[in-house]
Amino acid sequence: MPFKPVENPKCPKCQKSVYAAEERVAGGYKFHKSCFKCGLCGKMLDSTNVTEHEAELYCKNCHARKYGPKGYGFGGGAGCLSMDTGSHLQGDDVVVNRAPLLPKAIAKAPEGEGCPKCGGYVYAAEQMLARGRAFHKSCFKCGDCSKRLDSVNVTEGPDKDIYCKVCYGKNFGPKGYGYGQGGGTLQSDTFSVSGQAPKITVIDTAVIKAAPGQGCPRCGGVVFAAEEVLAKGRQWHRKCFKCHDCTKTLDSIIACDGPDRDVYCKTCYGKKWGPHGYGFACGSGFLQTDGLTEDQISANRPFYNPDTTSIKAPPGQGCPRCGGMVFAAEQQLAKGTMWHKKCFNCAECHRPLDSTLACDGPDREIHCRACYAKLFGPKGFGFGHTPTLVSTDGAAPVIHDPRPNSGPRGVAGQGCRRCGFAVFAAEQMISKNGLWHKRCFSCADCGRSLDSTNQNDAPNGEIYCRGCYGRNFGPKGVGFGMGAGTLTMA
């Protein structure tokens, strides 16, 4: 039996056998790798930019030139108005497709069963549906402008043909002012014969009168649901829902109901019914006083009485400074007493105070820290403010005794060990021998202020610093003492 080689598919360009190692597939045909290029410009192609048309290959640009739609509105970029068919690319140096161009035979279908455009059978792979009828993909185009259609922009006309939306609007859509798309906005083909212009209808909402108190508050006509706008429980025509003063069209966001039962925009409402004068209104109406006399402006001006003594309080319950009643909105607290915010300042320099700066003095007044230190703080070298030893009146400053000299005496054995007055918890200092005021807690000899780290309890019931304690009660003689007093026998 003679050997019969396997038949391989032929390349549509060169009509030679195509083997698996070099084949490229497009449109159901197999091409050589070297033949897989554009039939017009000769550009090498791949699967992303190849377009097949009747066994011939094209790049996307050449296919659009040769077979794509032409004219205004088609194409892209500078080629928007291009009528180029690619004829300048069909020279002698360009490889011409040698694939045989066979006429496309269309099998006719029975009447009413095939494509409504060409009458041929429509197979599932190429069918496009419109109103239950199947079209070929190539026949699925507008009946007027032949624009390619899809399921998004197809429109079926009453003549059982298919159109794009623009052509359908021109042929079957409404005519006149306000209809159509693009250049067909002012289309009035139905009036072209008679020469009449489109008639504009003005609707009078007051033709159908409503019962008193039930219709539109502006025109008195009946308000139907399709045109109803609500404001404060009343129904308005959409056409009548405008500002009473400037006739600006309103909606539910910017409408304001006035006390005269009419509606206004926010600006007109503010001018007519809002507060007037300095600090009110908006924009250029900051000082707006339309419609008001000087007397009315003065009468409506906010009044503020700065006199805190106008309302007297019962004795011992008001502000310690002025004696007036102190309300919660203006109160300031200091040592259990309530002060007006206006009165809560230093009694000496009148500096405004707050809870962190105020110091309660023994005279039941409040002071800033500086004035408190000048009046009640310790005096002398090392105390006070710079310069330390200043004497403003030419005389030597009087040494102020920091120990208490007034107040309740403590019970025997329970008061301060130094002054004998009662010691409260906020100012007490504790030693081995008893309680002390903070101001009395100092060395009995040199007067140096002490604390729990450097105080020493003496056998006589007093407290001393370490140096004075060692001098008075420490061991004496060689090897003891402090500094130059090491050998002292005093």
TrEMBL record:
Residues 9-69, 113-174, 214-275, 317-378, 414-475 form the LIM zinc-binding domain. InterPro entries: Znf_LIM. Keywords: LIM domain, Metal-binding, Myogenesis, Nucleus, Repeat, Zinc. This is Muscle LIM protein Mlp84B isoform X2. The gene is LOC115875333. It comes from Sitophilus oryzae. It is found in: Nucleus. Signal peptide: none annotated. GO terms for biological process: muscle organ development; muscle tissue development; sarcomere organization. It comes from the Eukaryota. One of its GO terms (molecular function) is structural constituent of muscle. PANTHER family: MUSCLE LIM PROTEIN MLP84B (PTHR24215:SF35), RHO-GTPASE-ACTIVATING PROTEIN LRG1 (PTHR24215). One of its GO terms (cellular component) is nucleus.
